Each structure stands twice: as structure tokens, then as C-alpha cells.
Amino acid sequence: MEKLVLKPKQKLTVIGLNGLAMTSKFEVQIVDQIGERYVIVHRGKRKKYYYTPNSQELIFENWDLPILVDTETNIMRGNACYNFITDDADKLKQYIEAKNINNEFKNFAHIIWIAESEMRKSEAKENLLYPEIETSHAVIGRIKSKL
Fold it and tell me: Average pLDDT of 114-126?
């Protein structure tokens, strides 16, 4: 497996899980590399941060991606899964498989999609993007039990 190599001035969108078990999406630009860590700035900001890519993040080149996560809609799931909003699951799956540059990401079983028409409902139907992958994740197990 090839190690992820990022370059100065490269723009990235990183999708992961934050400390509150919510999907997070942030846009950064690489400023420099110091050892295994990168120096980044968030889009529209000047403050620099250290960043080390990890296997829990989907990483895409560029900003303004054509994919939407739940926290961008002011509705958060807080289920420790990667929650995407889409009406076309196949298109989302193709995008992730073609554009994710983080070869170490293995949490495909934890990716959920919710239809745009359902997202404002309190009991919106959660769908698995990769139902064929086995996992011990409790939320995924609950969704699979309803299939």
C-alpha cells in the first residue's frame, strides 16, 4: 500500500469523526511538512495547525466537493458513523471509491447515507453504503437488523 504523500499548496477536504461522534468535514491547504506531520491552514483562516493524516479519515483533493455530510445541514446524527446526505447512493459510492486519496481508510462499513428528502425527519431512514462489509459497530448492527 502506497503511503499518502501531500504537497505544499495542495488543497484537501477531510471527512472524519470528531470527539462528539459527529461527522466532520473541513477544508485545508498544506503549507509545509515537518517529519510525518503537515502544517495546514483551514480554508479562509490564517492560523496554522499541525496535521497527521490517519486511517479514520476520508481525504479528497480540492475543496467544494459535490458531497454533503449531515453536519453541513445543521442536523447531526452523533452516531459515530460517516453520515452523508444524498439521493444517489451509487454516485456517492463511486465518488468515494474514485476520489478518496487515503489508501489507509478501512471504515467503509461505517458509511451511512440519508436521502435528502428524509434528512429533516426525526426518524430519517439510515442506509448503509456498504451493507456487505461485516463490522461489530453497534449502530451498523442496528441498521442491518432492520433490513
Answer: 83
pTM: 0.93
In a 3-state reduction of DSSP, which class is residue 147?
coil
| Cα 90 from Cα 116, distance rounded (Å) | 15
Task: Report the C-alpha gap between 72 and 106 in whole angstroms.
Answer: 23
Residues 118 and 51: their CA atoms lie apart, in Å, by 35
Our CA dihedral for 30, 33, 38, 39, rounded to 10 degrees, sits at -60
Closest to 13 (Cα-Cα) out of 115, 127, 95, 116: 95
User: Is the separation of the CB atoms in 79 and 139 below 8 Å?
Assistant: yes
Domain boundaries, the chain: 11-145
Q: Is 26 exposed, middle or buried (0-12, 13-18, 19+ CB in 10 A)?
A: middle
Q: For residue 145, which amino acid is it?
A: S
What confidence score (pLDDT) does residue 117 get? 85
Distances (CA, A) of 108 to 7, 61, 75, 137: 26, 19, 22, 12
